[in-house]
Amino acid sequence: MRSRSNSGVRLDYYQRIVHRLILAHQEPVTGLFPASNVNSHAWIRDNVYCILAVWGLSMAYKKIADQDEDRAKCYELEQSCVKLMRGLLMAMMNQKDKVEKFKMTQSPYDSLHAKYSSKNGLPVVGDNEWGHLQIDAVSLYLLILAQMTASGLQIVFSLDEVSFIQNLVFYIESAYSIPDYGIWERGDKTNHGEPELNASSIGMAKAALEAMNELDLFGARGGPASVIHVLADEAHKCQAVLQSMLPRESNSKELDSGLLCVIGFPAFAVDDAQLIHNTKDAILSRLQGKYGCKRFLRDGYRTPKEDPSRLYYERWELRMFENIECEWPLFYCYLILFHAFQSDKRSVQEYADRLEKIMVRSEDGILLVPESYAVPQDLVGFEYQKPGSQAREVVGRCPFLWGQSLFILGRLLQEGFLAVGELDPLNRRLGAQKKPDVVVQVVIIAEDNEIRDKLAEHDLHVQTIAEVAPIEVQPARVLSHLYTYLGRNRKLGLSGRKSRDVGILSTSKLYSLKDRIFAFTPQFADLSRFYIASDNELMIDILKGEINFLKSAWDLLGRPLVTLVLKRIHLDQDKIPLAMIQTMRKLKSGYINGTRVMLGSLKDFLNTSAITDLSFLGSTEDGYPDRLHPDVQTYLDEHLLRSFSNRSTMNLRGGQLRPRTLRRRMSCKGAIKKTRSINVDSDNLGMEGPSPLTERRLSSIVPPPWLQPNKQSHVSVFATTPEEGPSSPRQLGHELSVRENIYPVDPHNSTRSAIDRRSEFVRQQEMPKILIQRHRADTNFAETEVEELIAMLRETENLEEQGDILQYLVDTQGLDFNTGMLEEGRVVTVRDLLKGLYEKACQQKLWGLVRHTAGMLGKRVEDLAKAVTDLLVRQKQVTVGMPPNNEHTITAPLPEVELRQLIHDAYGDDESTAMLTQELMVYLAMFIRTEPQLFHEMLRLRVGLIIQVMAKELSRTLNCDGEAASEHLLNLSPFEMKNLLYHILSGKEFAVSSVARGNLSIVSCKSSRVSKKSQIGLGDPEGEDALIATIDDRQGQWLRRRRLDGALNRVPRDFYSRVWTVLEKCQGLAIEGRVLQQSLTQEMTPGELKFALEVETALNQIPQPEYRQLVVEALMVLTLVTEHNMVPTLGGIIYVEHLVHKANQLFLEDQRKVQGDATLCCAKIKDGKEQQQAASGMLLCGGAAYICQHLYDSAPSGSYGTMTYMSRAVALVLDCVPKHGEMECAIS
């Protein structure tokens, strides 16, 4: 017999070790590994990691298999892998009903179990007795299944198993929005069983989705039926969320060593080399010790201070675990593999040496990886004093098979038995390398010949839908329907894909089905959708955004292909809109916004595009894989006929009813206007008398109720009940208290202004004395009047008037009231009339009316839930409703219907603003996808405040009052609305230019001084207006900036972690009545998101954005005091607002000394009348919260800057700062 080569002998040595340490424990029946000799439970995650060493060794043998016995060893090792992977597959298939249920509920109780019995593969603990929902475990299984299949192992045997695996793909595809218990099975680190979004789970799911895509589970022998399909957009969403989270692991864990498996082997889930580097560095600098790495900060597991009698921790005890957390050698194994894949030999050697020092030798000389090292009980005190100084002892299992397996893999790589490519046959490790530029292909197709000819006049030559045959063009909803057939299996009771969403990556491919080829138009172009789809400029803007997105996100074979159909409905007065022509010319030029594009026809692009086979639509289960599923066949046949036809809108005209009198017309006038609730000015509260009804559009019925701080009398302003003449205040108060409290109104004026508001139009129109209540069916509303209204409705051409009449009808009669008209023999209800009006308003682009009717019809933006999820998963909370009383915070994804209900409840009767809120959420989600940097240092997006600031900015730019501004705001086209929101988020200056038909357009201005404010006579301009109108434009700059930052909740960098250091040195911080206790530092680490949200919630108690910003500045001054260690402690509870008010006093004293601007208002020498006014809460200059307007408008730095006054205030107010002796006080 030939002698063994050296490498053969060395491999035999590893084979003995693998056999003794790993394979000896494999259960012969199920193939699973028990956790230890005393615990027979088999965890999915640990089992998959255990088998990796066996798989690695089998590939090493395959390379040197020159003798039969080596081939046999190789086969034997491979079959152990297959046995284990199939054992896990069987255990999961036994729970197929859970997979089916979870697709719908995504509830932790419906998830697959995290561990099974190693004896028989059955469940070992109940659904609610363990944190079973661990998406990373199922994802890891799928990822390794894909890698092993690609390396040549056959693990999946039947098509039923293929459909089950396809459903596992659906199970993990929404990982980016499903909170789970994560890699340590704990969820929130207090271990109270609350799941949270974990970056390690999302990263693993992203890797599994990419690895599974288009993979044939039968390997080289399979056919189209055994291929797994993944929608590329789902993997991309996971990637986007992962990138926004790293290096953070979750809300309660600011860092976690478990992320090593996401940035390196086995997942390689991050494409950005810099982010990989930052995450690894953060882990090494904060979690690495002599004995491995800590899992996460303040991890109490197995520490001497942990109380073993209970699973959970009290919140206050987390601080005790700091610096004594267990260290796990497992992470050195990960780091060795990480550097081996980077081919960094020096680092590999360094960690191998470190690992060797802490491994344990067994009796027969084998090196074992222990589970973890803890500080011994008697040395805890010394370790607290000097972290890292004490010797630690082994706790937990030894050998720890998860670590041992990775250690053996590392050894095989170091000794050259394996190349890195063999452990990663799918080449995931190359993801972070630079890719060539993507060229986006664009095809424009005309609906019919007429549109084709119109385009030809502009020298743009396109084909019609008929001419592109045999390729069929369909809307995205067809593709979404076809995908519901994917993964269906009657025998297993699995129903296929549930989510109806298909993103731009999926519609940018061509699809083949038997001998047909389909192209799909993108989802955003689907006109059956929402009113924003009828704004052409916005659609073009979205198109540019999507093209830009494709440039960065496309990683499939071939080039992306965007197909657009130009339809009749896009025409503007029978012409192609100019914006469209300009965009098409840009596309033709080959570049648009920095992305390379090619405009061409479909057949030119057949060879360069990605083509996916829709073979899963065959009737495989009935034994006819070549025939289409009968349901699909009927769906396609029906759909092809009607996919691009339009329906007619309703006609309101006709009928010869002449109104007997026009007196009623006035009574409905402004009915829509009455529902508005956007508050702009906070100065002139309830000061307006009845305004004459001069101009039709601005006929104010209800002047907006201006907000005043600290006034608590609630009076609703939106009662739709005309009183019988001016009623007595007592009766009025009673009548109003029944309704929802929508706005606090100044008690000094409330009775007068509310009566005026409610009876003003009554007096002007001597309305018949009828009491109409919204929720009463037995109304004594005379039939004749309804007839008159309907007659007027037919006769008026003006859509605004129709809107007012319909609003009135809805308020009095309800949406389903039968109007007595007939349309093609069908009864017409008020709802039908509203629909007709909505469609007309969309065509005529009357956006204010469109928003209002959409709200009354209860429409919702299609992507609302998706948009909110996009914001939430990037760790931004959203609030809706107008602060301070009606804000609702959304902290977890909600279904569409609940979301819409929540938004509309928050705004009471104000349908327009509720619609605007939905719209803005969609734009915010677009921005956070394309320009995440706009949202840095913002934790909560308060949509109500943002709307108020938008109106304020318009009123400032147009120099008009608040009411006109909110009217202009609601009439902005969706495109301009998105544009205005962008300018406000980015803080850029803008100007408003008026376009034809009274539409406004928002333009960026390069210089901040576009025009001097003209002094338009606004009657008697009060306070702030008068001051600002007369002084140069630079004034108000800091005030505006503080207002924007305050409304957007923007804070300085590292603000929250710096507040943590202040909190550590005092007993608490009081802000607007909320106290942040020092105990928060006991339970949360400085960088923890949960801590930031606590501080944020306290700051959100402050209604005025500019005042909130000054409080943030005061907190920053306190952080400087603590960071420079000026004093050992800051004493008791600090009232932050006292500091701000003290600073204001100091400011006014200085102003009096130098005769500054503030001597005109707050620094005046007071006489009797003024004092009275000050007592009633009205500052002359209109400054919020009794702080002078001029302090808000001072720059932070400089000798008169706000920071200077804040520092002086801190020195005066805090007892701990020395009062005597020399102290240098210069603000750098």
Automatic annotation (TrEMBL):
Tell me which Gene Ontology terms the entry assigns under biological process. glycogen metabolic process
Q: What is the annotated localization of this protein?
A: Cell membrane
Q: MF terms per GO, please?
A: calmodulin binding
- Per the database record, which ranges form the GH15-like domain? 8-944
Q: Does the keyword Cytoplasm apply?
A: no
Q: Does the keyword Lipid metabolism apply?
A: no
The protein's UniProt keywords, in alphabetical order, are:
Calmodulin-binding, Carbohydrate metabolism, Cell membrane, Glycogen metabolism, Lipoprotein, Membrane, Phosphoprotein, Prenylation
- Give the UniProt entry's GO cellular component terms: phosphorylase kinase complex; plasma membrane
Q: What is its main location?
A: membrane
**Taking every annotated instance into account, which residue ranges of this chain make up the domain Phosphorylase b kinase regulatory subunit alpha/beta C-terminal?**
958-1152
Quote the pathway field: Glycan biosynthesis; glycogen metabolism
Membrane topology annotation: Lipid-anchor
Q: Name one Pfam family in it.
A: KPBB_C
Q: What does this protein do?
A: Phosphorylase b kinase catalyzes the phosphorylation of serine in certain substrates, including troponin I. The alpha chain may bind calmodulin.
Q: Which family does it belong to?
A: Belongs to the phosphorylase b kinase regulatory chain family.
Please state what the protein is called: Phosphorylase b kinase regulatory subunit
